[in-house]
Design goal:
heterodimer; A: 253 residues; alpha/beta; Rossmann fold; 2 domains; six-stranded mixed β-sheet; four-stranded antiparallel β-sheet; globular; B: 357 residues; mainly alpha; two-stranded antiparallel ribbon
Chain lengths: 253, 357
């Protein structure tokens, strides 16, 4: 049983083979990490999976459905939501409003219903608000509900971005370097948060540079180098993998 | 929600107060320009929704106004008597045509204004969807230039088409009948009713747009404006929402065009001109972009002054100048909550806040 299956995916940018015949699976309920040296193609892989880029060849299957030709919006509607390496919160909107946007796929009021303020939208708005507060309380950011999101400290902005993604109630959460720019204490907190998200039943796929974090929380790790998979295993085995050590630290001589 | 409707009520009070003032001071003739201002304000608030909330610029909305105005002007003045045929007799039997007298006493058979209005709106929706689809894929100045192109095309078409009156435009457009014996017309005897009809329509438009802003769609548009890729990743169909907002604002412009044409009794090609589009954008900008009330109040003041001729021959230059000055010195507009505190800060630079984060 797999939730996400990447099958022989390739992507070329001009003369650069960014991703080459890459395959791996993500099983439900796991935390899977995607690691590799700088420029290995990790973010490109994320963009391919989340519909931001179309693959040149290969298949991406999510929940039994081929999604490689879909837009990121269609992918999100199907239950796969991502965060960004460079935090992409909505400016001029409060923390609460940012998280409420995450409820978009679970509500239905359209242009006409919105303009006419139809009664069915009142209950819907109330439920969106309640659910958003629930998420903010779980993440410990409810006190900042009315603050403009981009005025928060960097670490808190990351939490808001994850909260916004969780508001979509995704089956699969893609985290692009969730610990980037965080100090050690914040990184530990982030690790705990990601584990908690997994325990809530959300499958997590993350790209991360912080090895201690990856080794601590991941159930499985895929290592890529120059767009190709060089290893896929449990954290302990990855740490002993000669090829991985060579890629990260260079040859012995 | 209560605050939203309180503001609406306050604005309605202002409209009544203005009318009462003209009554007391015996200046009821001002109501003519104030009524025209109302119709222009309808375009401005629709455009404000597009620019300020969805974050998409349009320099072509005078074109949509002109499409609305010209379609209704043409259909309600074109004599079908000499074009008897199956379609005309069918329209005639279904009550879609009206017979009336022209100014010389001859009789005319023309399309009913309601049908003409519906045709104008439908055509505008069609054109807006057709051009909006590809054009809204562009961003920033590219979008501005492409929409500028739309406006220029409409302008050149109405200017170069003989049956649309070429440079003379179309005149002798009849009034627009409403239930209850009301008529949208520039006739001075119905000045007061027309003033209230026009501003009533603006208030209705404001209610619809304010509701929209505070709805799920309004939040989604804010997200599209703020970070389009992130909005898309949250499952918001950004392209579709931008297009719908574009069409919505085009309909506001077209409806304004239809009704103002019936009010004025005609329309000319200058209504489609680029400087008209620039003017609407300038008013949205000075109102504070994402600020419907700002756009509306600035529209009320500036359109009125312009229509009363206060800017003289420098009319277009004034609006061009406003756009430049606002972009340079107050890109968030004149009317906004933090203007005073921002000004204070600008005057007494606080060194703590200048520190790099």
């Amino acid at each position: 049983m797999t939730l996400l299956s990447v099958r022989g995916v390739s992507k070329r940018f001009g003369g650069l083979q960014a991703v080459n015949d890459l395959s791996f699976d993500v099983v439900p309920g796991a935390i899977k990490a995607l690691i590799g040296p700088n420029g290995a193609g990790k973010t490109t892989i994320f963009n391919l999976i989340s519909g931001f880029l179309p693959p040149d060849s290969g298949e991406i299957v999510f929940g039994g459905e081929g999604i490689h030709a879909m837009s990121s919006c269609e992918v999100a509607v199907r239950g796969m939501v991502r965060t960004f390496q460079h935090i992409r919160l909505f400016p001029k909107m409060t923390v609460l409003e940012n998280i409420m946007v995450g409820r978009h796929v679970h509500s239905r009021a359209g242009f006409l219903a919105g303009m006419l303020n139809l009664p069915f939208t009142w209950g819907e708005e109330r439920r969106i608000r309640e659910k958003s507060f629930e998420i903010m309380e779980m993440l410990g950011i409810a006190a900042h509900a009315g603050t403009e999101a981009i005025r928060l400290a960097y670490g808190q902005q990351r939490v808001v971005e994850i909260g916004r993604a969780l508001a979509c109630e995704p089956k699969l959460l893609l985290l692009d370097e969730p610990a980037a720019g965080l100090n050690m204490r914040e990184t530990n907190g982030m690790g705990e948060l990601i584990s908690r998200i997994r325990d809530m039943g959300v499958t997590v796929l993350l790209v991360e540079h912080d090895m201690s974090l990856v080794m601590k929380i991941s159930d499985e790790i895929v290592v890529v180098s120059y767009g190709e998979k060089i290893a896929e295993d449990r954290p302990l085995a990855i740490q002993k993998n000669r090829e991985v050590i060579r890629v990260y630290l260079g040859d012995d001589e | 929600m209560a605050r939203r409707y309180f503001a609406i009520a306050a604005f309605a009070g202002l409209i009544v107060a203005i009318q009462l003032t003209t009554l007391v001071t015996g200046t009821a003739y001002y109501l003519t320009q104030l009524t025209m201002t109302a119709y222009y304000s309808l375009i401005v608030v629709g455009l404000c929704m597009l620019i300020g909330y969805a974050g998409q610029i349009s320099l072509g909305h005078a074109g949509f106004f002109a499409i609305g105005g010209y379609v209704t002007a043409f259909l309600t003045t074109f004599d079908l008597k000499s074009h008897q045929g199956a379609i005309v007799s069918l329209l005639s039997k279904s009550g879609a045509l009206v017979s009336r007298q022209d100014v010389y006493g001859g009789s005319l058979l023309t399309v009913h204004p309601w049908l003409a209005c519906a045709a104008a709106i439908l055509l505008t929706v069609g054109v807006a969807y057709l051009v909006g689809g590809p054009v809204l894929k562009l961003k920033g100045h590219y979008l501005a230039m492409a929409t500028l192109g739309i406006g220029i095309i409409v302008y050149r078409i109405v200017l170069g088409t003989d049956f649309l009156g070429a440079s003379d435009g179309i005149s002798e457009v009849p009034g627009f009948p409403l239930p209850g014996g009301l008529l949208i017309t520039g006739d001075s005897s119905s000045r007061i009713s027309n003033y209230y009809l026009a501003w009533g329509l603006v208030i209705l438009g404001m209610v619809l747009l304010l509701n929209l802003i505070h709805s799920r769609i309004g939040r989604a548009l804010g997200a599209v404006h703020g970070a389009e890729d992130a909005a898309e990743a949250m499952g918001i169909p950004t392209a579709r929402y931008k297009l719908h907002t574009f069409v919505l604002s085009a309909v506001f412009a077209a409806l304004a065009g239809v009704l103002l044409t019936h009010y004025n009794g005609g329309i000319g090609p200058s209504e489609a001109g680029v400087m008209k589009s620039v003017r609407y954008v300038a008013i949205v900008a000075i109102g504070g972009m994402a600020n419907l009330w700002g756009a509306l109040s600035m529209s009320l003041v500036l359109n009125y002054l312009s229509l009363r001729g206060y800017f003289g021959t420098y009319d277009d230059a004034v609006f061009g100048g406003i756009l430049i000055l606002i972009m340079l010195f107050a890109p968030d507009g004149l009317l906004r909550r933090h203007l005073l505190s921002d000004l204070k800060r600008a005057i007494s630079r606080n060194p703590v806040e200048e520190e790099a984060p």
